[in-house]
Design goal:
30% of the residues lie in helices and 32% in strands. With 248 residues, the chain is of the alpha+beta class. The protein folds into two domains: 5-86 and 234-243, Phosphorylase Kinase, domain 1 (2-Layer Sandwich), CATH 3.30.200.20; 87-223, ATP-grasp fold, B domain (D-amino Acid Aminotransferase, Chain A, domain 1).
Length: 248
């Protein structure tokens, strides 16, 4: 049953979150806006929200099957995701399997350097403060979470990395790094939220190392939506396309 949509309760850079007739659930609408550099670089790319929503839904379903609690409930239509309502923790948890992006600008790593075990990085989600990196002591002092919950987040993140990395390897995609967010549900459980998409991950073609994510936009290169579509086409099976009436 399609929920009744209520008031807009949150507007992010690329998604809107609405109340529904169930206080425990929200509707997340994926927009076609795309940003980079704390929102300083902006554009609108047709169907970006469409692809991000179906890619995220597929990843959330894979993770749920592996025992990871997520916010995802249902993809009502491409671009519209029914989700559990969470109180989001203002932390970005970044997992790095391969050195790329800001990591090689800030530290003496070589681009393409592999990490085993992966690096887990924690940033404060704040455009005002430019998403600074922080550690557990700072996160606890700011009241964002507890040490116990941060340990749960770390263990869950490592599991998410293992599950998605193995899945993507089968699909011919390298997984250099990704950014995820968590929140608390009404019972105080830590739950994976937000999205997992080319907006929040780096995806490289396993054979050519071609970029298949938002880095194309960051660097001012063409082919952004084609890259997003390629990720979707590689990870979705025939049944996925049938149940969501996908047109590619």
């Amino acid at each position: 049953m399609t929920p009744q949509i209520g008031n807009l309760i949150y507007q992010g850079k690329a998604k809107d979150v609405y109340e529904t007739d169930d206080p425990e659930k929200v509707l997340v609408k994926f927009r076609d806006d795309i940003t980079a550099g704390d929102g300083e670089k902006k554009d609108v790319i047709n169907k970006k929200g469409y692809y991000n929503s179906i890619i995220s839904a597929k990843f959330f379903e894979i993770l749920q099957a592996a025992g990871v609690k997520t916010q995802y409930l249902d993809l009502i239509n491409p671009g519209e995701m029914l989700s559990l309502r969470l109180e989001m923790i203002p932390l970005e948890i970044i997992t790095r399997n391969i050195a790329a992006g800001s990591l090689i600008k800030k530290f003496p790593f070589k681009e393409g350097q592999k990490f085993d075990p992966p690096i887990i990085q924690m940033d404060y989600k704040s455009d005002e403060f430019h998403d600074p990196m922080l550690n557990e002591d700072i996160a606890v002092a700011l009241g964002f979470s507890t040490r116990k919950d941060l340990e749960i987040i770390r263990k869950t993140t490592l599991k998410i990395n293992q599950v998605l990395k193995e899945f993507l390897e089968i699909k011919g995609i390298l997984f250099p790094d990704f950014k995820i967010e968590y929140g608390y549900d009404s019972q105080g459980n830590i739950v994976l939220g937000d999205e997992i998409s080319p907006d929040t991950c780096r995806f490289w073609d396993n054979e050519t190392c071609d970029v298949l994510d938002k880095d194309l936009f960051r660097k001012g290169e063409s082919g952004v939506i084609e890259a997003y579509q390629k990720v979707a086409s590689l990870i979705l099976d025939v049944e996925d396309k049938k149940r969501w009436n996908l047109d590619f």
